[in-house]
Amino acid sequence: MSSTLSSTLPVLVDPPVDHHDVVAWLASLDGPTWIELSGIDDQRCRVITTLLHGNEPSGLLALHRWLAERPRPQTRLAVLVANVEAALASPVLTRRIAPAGRDLNRCFRPPWADASGVLAQAIARDIVARCPECVIDVHNTSGDGPAFAVATHRDPHVEALASHFCDRLIVTDFRLGSLMELPFTHPFPPGCPVFTLECGGAMQPASVEVAIEAYRQLAEWQDVTGLEADPALEVLVHPLRVELAPGASLDYARTPQPGMDVTLWSRIDACNQGVTMPNVCLGWLGRRGLTTLQARDARGEDRIRQLLCERGGGLYPRHPLRLFMATTHVEIARSDCLFYAVPADEAHGVTDF
After folding, report:
1. pTM summary value
2. What is the pLDDT of residues 66-120, one digit of tens each?
């Protein structure tokens, strides 16, 4: 069934879930598709996007399960299932980007000449056309770990919403072309909170529960602007992206690998929880040492030596750190980053680098 709302991408309004198997249901969609649920108040709309990365399925799994409950939201609720092509590429639900495509969550800024850029433009137009009260972009982390939210600036509305889904909010000043940056380039309603919800690792059952709770609460709340933030929410600001230097080699193992510039501990994603102390070995460096890593801030300054150090060939935090998005996937680490980090400040719950 098509919606009367003007939309660039296909729309299904109040669709039945005809497939018990989520992959069969995904394959029945005509590419990127809006799943739109009628609300008690249809003049207002809230937006959730999911599956921008084909290997981050928790938002999709939660949506499939939640739709079977036949929910009736307080407002119109529009859910975008975005990167269907990447998700269906064999082996299913394992490929971050579509074949011959780009990372869709880096395409919400120019250039838009290729298929990924065209799709990002279409998504942006459709979100703006809905005049949303809020926009939540649902993802999985690239390694195992707890759920957290990411925003582009401090905003009490974002903090209030995020604190109902997770215990930590990351405020980043990096501009990478992600969906949550759209309010900087498009006419969004004033005060509309936009943020990313990282539900945890793709293989963690708890990640689906985080996502389904986001659907339920966003559907059930009568007013998203009157929510109060949980005072226990931890806010970390201005994280650094730890990346490989150009041309550096990488592996994951329990011991240093011969010929590798960087060998990260094979379970470094365990550091996504809590504080990582300076005595924790994150991995090992080759003969070129720290020159094979970089941690540039939003101004382009390399801060790697303020963040990490080498001791006896091992890679260690220079001081207590909170790590997140630490991955054990070599290709993701090479193409994106190894992890993000901020200095820990448990006394205040807010850290600024």
Report:
1. 0.87
2. 999 999 999 999 999 999 999 999 999 999 999 989 999 999 998 888 999 999 9
CB neighbourhood size of 30 (10 A): 9
CA distance 175 to 270: 27
* 180 Cβ neighbours under 8 A, 6+ residues apart: 135, 137, 150, 151, 152, 194, 195, 196
Calpha distance 144→268 (Å, rounded): 9
Task: State pLDDT tens for residues 163-219.
Answer: 999 999 999 988 999 999 999 999 998 889 999 999 999 999 999 999 999 999 999
* DSSP H or E segment with residue 137: strand 135-141
Contact in structure between 120 and 102 (CB atoms under 8 Å):
no
The structural architecture, per CATH, of the domain 11-236 is: 3-Layer(aba) Sandwich (3.40)
User: Domains of the chain: which residue ranges?
Assistant: 11-236, 239-351
Torsions phi, psi of 157, nearest 5? -70, -40
- Extract the tokens encoding 33: 């598709």
**306: which 2 tokens?**
């303020």
For residue 135, the model assigns a pLDDT of 98
Contact between 210 and 61 under an 8 Å Cβ cutoff? The reply is no
Q: Which residue has the tokens 């929510």?
A: 227
Cβ-based neighbours of 238, under 8 Å, separated by 6 or more: 171, 172, 173, 297, 298, 342, 352, 353
